[in-house]
Amino acid sequence: MTVEHHLQASGDGQGPAAGPAGSDGKGIASLFATDTLATWPDELAATLARARIEVDLDMLAANLAAVRRFLQPGTRLLAVVKGDGYGVGAEMAARTFAAAGADALGTATLESALRLRRSGITAPILVFQPPEPPLLDFWLREGLQATVHDAATLHALSQRAVALGVGRPLAVHLEVDMGLGRGGLAPGQVAPLLAGAASLPGVRIEGLYTHLPTAARPRLALRLLDRFLRLVRDLEERGLRPPLVHCAESHLLVLAPYAQLDMVRVGNLLYGYAPRAARRAGLAVRPPSRLVVRVWAVHRAGDMTPGYRGGWARPGTPVAVLPVGLADGLRPAREARHWGDRMVILGRRLLGALGARQVLGASTAPPGPRVRAGHREVPLRGEFMMNHCLFDATGLPLAPGQEVELLVSRLTAPAHLPVVYLRGGRPVAVAWPQRQVLECVTAGTATAAPGGTAGGDAPAAAEAPAGAGDGQELRPVTGAASPGAGAVSPEAAVAPPVAGGPAHPDEETMG
Ligand SMILES: *Cc1c(COP(=O)(O)O)cnc(C)c1O
């Protein structure tokens, strides 16, 4: 669950008086200077003092505008916010893209779409996950556009739509699998399904799409694209073509502008992950996010080489300690275990030294993390432990409490860290994912728990189509009402049952 705190709500409407978080090295100080912080959960304040992801919302909007300028007039733009908005937080990414003129949003999972709806986002949302019978009603109630992979699901959606008396027909997009293997109709199944779907009540076939492996296999993707376009021509001739045909994601959009068709579904480009071809094609996007971490300690390596693994710092080397690690999803660069790997790395270094980086191509393994402090930047040589990172700080004059930027190839892994959103260089909101522990209670046998039922927050089991199961209910273990009090640390999850839980082993109802 993402708790979002709007700094502007409590202050003078301009956020904190200090400059942009992080940019002046006083980022945390400027955040902590706000009155709002007093109302934030203590755990959030504590986490912010350790690490945060900063996201420039203006940059996200500018990236969307850049992609829009690249499109033919009239082509629709669906902004993909899967993977929690590629690590920057799906909710604020979705709000920003919708406000900047995205025609629709795309999520990979139902739960992500439901979160967006619960946060008040009303834009059209296409869910790439196809509905299954116990979950159909979520699509219908929340007006989520459905991806359909088979006739049975289409009929089931139609029946439920009629049974629920949903006003507007549900928009459905058929997905065809041209070979990616992630699911979808076989090309030959599309025409018969479309022919039979015209008369179905409660649903309307709005789109037909496919997803191709362009990023890793561009030549193959172009062949598959040709096959897809032949299928579309065939449907046109039979008068079966749905209004929105789409196939281009970031890579295909740049590789084959003729693949834009009626709509494009763009993720990577919006978050500044640009294929080199994008720049060549005049499509300039920039990364909107940075991972900022406070240095915990700096010391000189003693005679024993530091770390579990050791071997990366000689005696006397300055060693910095960062409070982030494997638990934050961070991984060191792939190690060269085998002589073959070592030769490849050596070869790359040689070529790099000769200034021949371009020769290496985009498909080589991503570079390992780097650390930046001020204007200096070095490769991260060291070790990640569960909650720590130790590294050789040679070349970076670091002091405890100072902020450094960790440059990682993808921000999706540490997406559970708090995200601080900036607009006009000032913090405007913080998203903080937290785990709330809900207790399973069976109706009838439950003792009255403080805080009543889960009510407003979770879909009530009694009426939700895919609730917790027969007669089961979920309620917050802490009976929490406020976001602050509702936060339960992962450690608490393994604590013994608390008051309001089953008092007797016979009452255990996990079945
Ligand atoms: C992820 C995804 C996209 C976006 O791909 P990018 O490479 O991030 O632009 C588009 N469509 C589908 C179905 C996806 O799963």
- Main-sheet strand order equals 1-20-19-2-11-18-14-15
The rounded Rg comes to: 26 Å
Could you say which overall geometry the principal axes of the C-alpha atoms support? Answer: globular
Which band does the percent of strand residues land in?
15-25%
Structure summary, number of beta strands: 22
Q: Which helices and strands, and how do they pair?
A:
Blueprint: E1 2-6, H1 7-10, H2 27-32, H3 42-48, E2 51-56, H4 57-70, E3 76-80, H5 82-86, H6 90-99, E4 104-107, H7 110-118, E5 125-127, H8 136-142, E6 145-148, H9 151-164, E7 170-175, H10 187-197, E8 203-209, H11 218-237, E9 244-248, H12 250-255, E10 263-266, H13 276-280, E11 289-294, E12 297-300, E13 318-322, H14 339-353, E14 370-373, E15 376-379, E16 382-384, E17 389-392, E18 403-407, E19 419-423, E20 426-433, E21 438-442, E22 472-476, H15 483-486, H16 490-493
Parallel strand pairs: 2-19, 3-4, 3-10, 4-5, 5-6, 6-7, 7-8, 8-9, 9-10
Antiparallel strand pairs: 1-20, 2-11, 11-18, 12-13, 13-17, 14-15, 14-18, 16-17, 19-20, 21-22
Helix pairs in contact: 4-6
Bound molecules: pyridoxal-5'-phosphate.
Folded structure, characterized:
The longest helix is centred in the middle third of the chain and has 20 residues, at 218-237. This protein starts with a strand and ends in an 18-residue tail after the last helix. It has helices at 7-10, 27-32, 42-48, 57-70, 82-86, 90-99, 110-118, 136-142, 151-164, 187-197, 218-237, 250-255, 276-280, 339-353, 483-486, 490-493; strands at 2-6, 51-56, 76-80, 104-107, 125-127, 145-148, 170-175, 203-209, 244-248, 263-266, 289-294, 297-300, 318-322, 370-373, 376-379, 382-384, 389-392, 403-407, 419-423, 426-433, 438-442, 472-476. It has 16 helices and 22 strands. Helix 4 (57-70) crosses helix 6. By secondary structure, it is of the alpha/beta class. It binds pyridoxal-5'-phosphate. Residues 80, 82, 108, 128, 211, 249-251, 265-268 line the site of pyridoxal-5'-phosphate.
